[in-house]
Write a structure and sequence with these properties.
Radius of gyration: 18 Å
Shape: elongated
Number of domains: 1
Largest sheet: none
Structural class: mainly alpha
Length: about 150
Amino acid sequence: MSGTAIAIIGAGLCAALAGCGSAVGVMTAGKANAGVTSEKPDLFGKLLVLQALPGTQGIYGFLIAILILAKITVGMDASQGWSLFGAAMPMAIAGLVSGIAQGKTAAAAIHMTGKQPDASGKGITMTAMVETYAILALLTSILLLTKI
């Protein structure tokens, strides 16, 4: 397999896995949002912010995929391809796992906000804490790409 193909697979996996994590996370939070909003429609704005937070991992994965694609050259050897593939993996794996985890945290925060509307800021803080690990993975992938 050529280095170009290996790098393209890495970029694709990064976008796909992080995107899947975000999709599952946003869906999980969305189900909670629908339940609470059906009983308290006035909370929709506060809850939408919580539902949107798990979507960032997909954006990060897409960004890393674009950065990898920009580094691909025709005729790359396998070692260069594997280097780019390896740079994609922190964001791919952490994006998948943290997107799902953030969705679960957001769902819990949505339920909390449904019971205590003034607690939405606390819920955002709890949900954003999971984001820390997605940001660390994003930075790791970017730093790895600067070394290639």
